[in-house]
Write a structure and sequence with these properties.
It contains four helices and three strands; from the N terminus they run ααααβββ. The chain is mostly helical.
């Protein structure tokens, strides 16, 4: 499959899933707890295609990977809210199965895309990316303060390890 065909397929599948999810949340009960779940399901489901589109228009490899990271997080969050809807009795397994199944296919595709993009940037180092000032620091994966760091000497006083926190 070509890159263009892959993009079109992923965008179409994720957008169709978002549409099906919006129709699904309309069928949930009007109870306060169900409304919370419905709102979160709608937000996370629509965030997947929106952030994938943004990733396809990224201005750098780092931005591309960051946007795909958001796609990954939102897909995982979607699955959690869907599970919670079932556990609370707001939806049946039968009603959520096709939504869950589709997102469970899109999530590993997203993760594979992130991994292959990282690996293809510099075959000598799976953590380094072009341009060379961007570097993913995986040494503190459990540390919430670890993340994207810049190492550009032209950044002045920010050169000493500016970090952006993943939130």
């Amino acid at each position: 499959m070509t890159n263009a065909a892959f993009k079109k397929d992923f965008q179409g599948r994720s957008q169709a899933l978002a549409k099906r999810t919006l129709l699904f949340v309309d069928s949930l009960p009007s109870k306060p707890g169900a409304r919370i779940i419905a709102n979160q399901l709608g937000r996370s489901a629509t965030s997947v295609p929106a952030n994938y589109r943004a990733a396809c228009r990224a201005r750098s490899t780092a931005e591309f990977i960051a946007k795909l990271g958001i796609v990954e997080e939102e897909a995982d969050e979607f699955l959690m809210w869907l599970e919670l809807a079932r556990e609370c009795g707001y939806a049946t397994s039968e009603a959520t199965e096709s939504l869950s199944s589709e997102m469970n296919e899109l999530l590993p595709i997203t993760v594979a895309c992130i991994k292959s993009t990282r690996a293809n940037q510099n075959p000598d180092s799976k953590n380094s990316m072009s341009p060379s000032r961007f570097q993913i620091d995986n040494s503190n994966m459990g540390n919430p303060n670890s993340g994207l760091q810049t190492q550009n000497s032209n950044m002045g006083s920010l050169n000493s390890g500016l970090q952006t926190q993943n939130s």
